[in-house]
Design goal:
It comes from Stenotrophomonas tumulicola. By secondary structure, the chain is α+β, with helices and mostly antiparallel strands. 39% of the residues lie in helices and 18% in strands. A hairpin with a 5-residue loop joins β6 and β7. The protein is rod-shaped and about 85 Å long. The two termini are 47 Å apart.
Length: 170
């Protein structure tokens, strides 16, 4: 099988790019007369405007649409950023000192090195120190995992003074 000629390849790519360029064209570059049918334009009373008034209306509308689009893009970007932070907190330091709070579903029978704690929020944390907590039994306890110094994280059950050093594994 032979490769297509460079000319054929260039033509094919150009044809494929046409719909992409057309779809990427911003709506704010168009005016009301292009966006509305003649009957819609007349029903809205826009046919009564002078050319200058219609131009000013189009300019205002384009600015409004552009501002709303910019605001929506920024809001989506921030929402995505927050989602990444929440999803990856514990793996990376995002500068927040706020603890992660969740529930430890099922029975809690104390701390033990190497134990994996699977939280209701989907995170899995492994205990890395030898902290122990004998005789403490809780069902579905709330937990708090707070950042410490040097990237360390500590899991604590409210009302219990002992805390365990943990690292996020999932």
């Amino acid at each position: 099988m032979s490769l297509p000629s460079p000319r054929l390849l260039a033509c094919t790519l150009a044809l494929l790019a046409l719909p992409l360029a057309a779809s990427a064209q911003r709506v704010v570059d168009r005016d009301l007369q292009q966006e509305m049918s003649p009957s819609e334009f007349k029903a809205a009373g826009l046919d009564k405007l002078s050319a200058d008034e219609l131009s000013r209306l189009n300019h205002w509308l384009q600015g409004t649409v552009e501002a709303a689009t910019t605001q929506a893009v920024e809001a989506a970007r921030e929402e995505g950023r927050q989602e990444v932070i929440v999803k990856n907190r514990g793996f990376f330091d995002f500068g927040s000192r706020e603890p992660i709070t969740s529930v430890l579903p099922g029975a809690f029978n104390g701390f033990a090195k190497g134990r994996i704690y699977m939280l209701a929020n989907g995170q899995h944390w492994e205990q890395t120190d030898a902290a122990s907590l004998g005789g403490v039994r809780r069902l579905d306890p709330e937990v708090s995992i707070a950042p410490g110094v040097g990237g360390a994280w500590y899991l604590q059950i409210p009302g219990v003074n002992t805390r365990a050093k943990v690292k996020r594994v999932k």
